[in-house]
């Protein structure tokens, strides 16, 4: 089976995964011949609703100097906007289907695809044969998408080898080959699981969130809390960002929306003290997951790193082997600057995973590959929009499909016609 066919089978799922209807056995088919026809309009309507919902309006980040009241009002408005669509999706059983998740990646990466893929398509149109000039221009296009210098050099070398090995002359279908090799390069960068290291139910899991101010850390915490709660886990939040104006209140807004308790102290309190209280509260209430927010004042680098080290010590002292996850939130729109931030936080704490926010807001989505290949830290979640369920576990094949969707669909159609 070709790479494209394997990708389609995984990403689109079978009919039983795509439709929120009960699977019909072979014996039942003659009796219920008309059932699929009745269900089809409902499924099509659901598809249309999902497609409409994954076209969010951009949310403007509030600057730090804004009055706290305005910051909180903005968060409340943001939370209110995502409430109704999420409930509709959950009720219709569409929330976790393979097809809808793939569509989120496709829609969320539309800006990168419009920029990156259009350039690749122009390149393919101008070069009907694969030669050295083609590779040089492809190299430049990949660099402009923030794929990263080392990754681009590796990819070009692999592509040259494949072209020579398979005696490929035409650029027709080159996007499929690029897609396949990007997935291989990403997966080769490390075998770490993208799954969260959640403890068995009945045992407390502590997740520590780190990242600079303005990357969407608090919003991501709220969305992750919603995701874990929808999976049947009890969740508690700890407001450890005690210095940024409005940070505690912002987290409380999300806690109220998701329906989880927030452990907090007054503004300016010792973050380590907040973590101590939160851990004990979580233990006493039998909570499954404690998600801890932290400060992100990178301009005070030394103080921030000491603070994170202290928070880590308190948590690990109270809960052996905790924190079980240290998730670093990075803003995809900052491009290569995100790599610098990641390296800085990696020096201060044991970062176990990356949450790449605002991937839908950048035309340089190639940063995902650069982060993985350079830092060897798995990207565990990506933000693909402003809806509550637009925080999705990262999947290399869905990501690559999002980059080349139109070209890959066209190539797959050709392969199926040839078969």
Q: Can you walk me through this structure?
A:
With 419 residues, the chain is α/β, with parallel strands linked by helices. The chain is built from 16 helices and eight strands. It has helices at 3-12, 15-18, 35-53, 68-91, 98-108, 110-126, 132-144, 149-165, 174-188, 217-230, 247-258, 271-285, 301-318, 337-348, 367-375, 396-418, and strands spanning 205-210, 235-239, 261-263, 289-293, 325-331, 353-357, 379-383, 391-393. An eight-stranded mixed β-sheet has the order 3-2-4-1-5-6-7-8, with helices on both faces. Strand 5 (325-331), helix 14 and strand 6 form a beta-alpha-beta unit. Helix 5 crosses helix 16 (396-418) and helix 6 runs antiparallel to helix 7. The longest helix is centred in the first third of the chain and has 24 residues, at 68-91.
Q: From the alpha-carbon coordinates, what is the Rg to the nearest angstrom?
A: 23 Å
> What coarse outline follows from CA principal-axis ratios?
elongated
Largest sheet: 8 strands, mixed
Low-confidence stretches: 15-65, 83-95
* Fraction of helical residues: 55-70%
Say how many strands there are: 8
**What class, by secondary structure content?**
alpha/beta
Strand portion: 5-15%
What would the average pLDDT be, to the nearest integer? 79
Distance between the termini: 11 Å
> What is the spatial order of strands in the main beta sheet?
3-2-4-1-5-6-7-8
Q: Specify the number of helices.
A: 16
List the secondary-structure elements in sequence, H or E.
Answer: HHHHHHHHHEHEHEHEHEHEHEEH
């Amino acid at each position: 089976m070709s790479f494209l066919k394997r990708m389609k089978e995984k990403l689109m799922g079978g009919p039983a995964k795509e439709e929120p209807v009960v699977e019909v056995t072979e014996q039942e088919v003659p009796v219920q011949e008309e059932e699929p026809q009745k269900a089809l309009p409902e499924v099509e309507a659901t598809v249309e609703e999902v497609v409409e919902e994954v076209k969010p309006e951009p949310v403007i980040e509030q600057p730090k100097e804004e009055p706290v009241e305005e910051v909180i009002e903005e968060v409340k408005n943001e939370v209110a906007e995502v409430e109704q669509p999420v409930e509709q999706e959950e009720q219709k059983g569409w929330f976790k289907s393979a097809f809808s998740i793939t569509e989120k990646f496709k829609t969320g990466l539309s800006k990168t695809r419009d920029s990156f893929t259009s350039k690749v398509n122009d390149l393919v149109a101008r070069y009907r044969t694969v030669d050295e000039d083609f590779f040089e221009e492809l190299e430049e296009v990949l660099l402009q998408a923030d794929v990263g210098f080392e990754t681009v050099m590796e990819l070009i070398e692999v592509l040259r080898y494949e072209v020579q090995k398979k005696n490929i002359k035409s650029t027709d279908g080159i996007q499929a080959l690029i897609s396949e090799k990007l997935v291989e390069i990403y997966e080769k960068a490390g075998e770490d699981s993208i799954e969260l290291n959640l403890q068995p139910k009945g045992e407390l899991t502590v997740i520590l969130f780190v990242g600079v101010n303005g990357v969407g850390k608090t919003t991501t915490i709220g969305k992750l809390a919603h995701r874990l709660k929808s999976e049947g886990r009890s969740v508690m939040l700890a407001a450890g960002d005690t210095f940024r104006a409005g940070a505690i209140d912002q987290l409380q807004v999300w806690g109220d929306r998701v329906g989880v308790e927030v452990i907090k102290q007054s503004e300016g309190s010792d973050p380590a003290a907040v973590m101590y209280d939160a851990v004990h509260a979580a233990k006493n209430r039998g909570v499954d997951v404690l998600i801890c927010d932290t400060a992100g004042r990178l301009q005070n680098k030394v103080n921030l790193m000491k603070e994170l080290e202290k928070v880590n010590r308190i948590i690990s002292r109270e809960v052996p082997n905790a924190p079980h996850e240290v998730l670093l939130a990075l803003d995809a729109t900052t491009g290569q600057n995100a790599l610098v931030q990641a390296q800085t936080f990696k020096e201060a704490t044991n970062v176990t995973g990356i949450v790449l926010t605002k991937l839908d807001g950048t035309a340089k989505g190639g940063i995902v590959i650069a982060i993985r290949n350079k830092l060897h830290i798995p990207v565990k979640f990506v933000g693909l929009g402003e809806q509550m369920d637009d925080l999705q576990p990262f999947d290399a094949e869905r990501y690559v499909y999002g980059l080349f969707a139109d070209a890959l669909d066209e190539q797959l159609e050709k392969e199926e016609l040839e078969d």
